[in-house]
Design a protein that fits this description.
- This protein is mainly alpha-helical.
- It has one domain (35-183).
- The protein has helices at 6-9, 26-159, 162-183.
- The termini are far apart.
- 0% of the residues are buried.
- Residues 64-127 form a coiled coil.
- It is found in: Membrane; Plastid, Chloroplast thylakoid membrane.
- One of its GO terms (cellular component) is chloroplast thylakoid membrane.
């Protein structure tokens, strides 16, 4: 039985008289084969390769345009956010300043109200002291007057007889009537 590969192996030893032969020299045949294959690929694959490259180019350009639009949108949003931040910071500063001035105003009002309250308390204290002094003076006067009156009555009672006593009462009644007529 013959081997199937025998005819291919023996092809290199055939005579070249009008027949087709394979060149088995690798160094000589590889550049020729590669040139033929590349030529065929370039000729037939040029359109497909151009279409693929054009599609890829369009996708890249579209992606770049979309990226640019997104970047512009992001920049606009960033600027709006910065403007909003500036407004918020200004309002916060305004609230802070208003708050500080309101606190200072409340502090001043509280100090004034406390001062007024202290002044009123001082006035009430002084009035109370004056009232208590007057009351104490009046009590001392009444006690001195009562003691003087009792002493005078005791002296009069021991020194006066009933006739002198009667004349003194009548004179005092006359003085009281004269005072009553003056006030009417």
């Amino acid at each position: 039985m013959k081997n199937v590969t025998d005819p291919f192996v023996s092809l290199g030893h055939w005579p070249s008289a009008g027949s087709f032969t394979f060149n088995t020299d690798i160094l000589a045949t590889n550049p020729i084969n590669l040139g033929v294959v590349l030529g065929v690929l370039i000729y037939f694959g040029k359109g497909v390769l151009n279409d693929l490259l054009d599609n890829r180019k369009q996708k890249i350009l579209s992606t770049i345009r979309n990226s640019e639009e997104l970047r512009r949108g992001a920049i606009e949003q960033l600027e709006r956010a910065r403007a909003h931040l500036r407004k918020v910071e200004m309002k916060a500063d305004e609230y802070r300043m208003n708050g500080y001035s309101e606190i200072e105003r409340e502090k001043a009002n509280l100090i004034n109200a406390t001062s007024d309250s202290l002044e009123q308390l001082e006035n009430y204290k002084n009035e109370t002291l004056h009232f208590e002094q007057q009351r104490a003076i009046n009590q001392v006067r009444q006690q001195v007057f009562q003691q003087a009156l009792q002493g005078a009555l005791g002296t009069l009672n021991s020194c006066l007889n009933s006739e002198l006593h009667f004349r003194t009462i009548n004179a005092n009644i006359g003085i009281l009537r004269a005072m009553e007529e003056i006030t009417d």
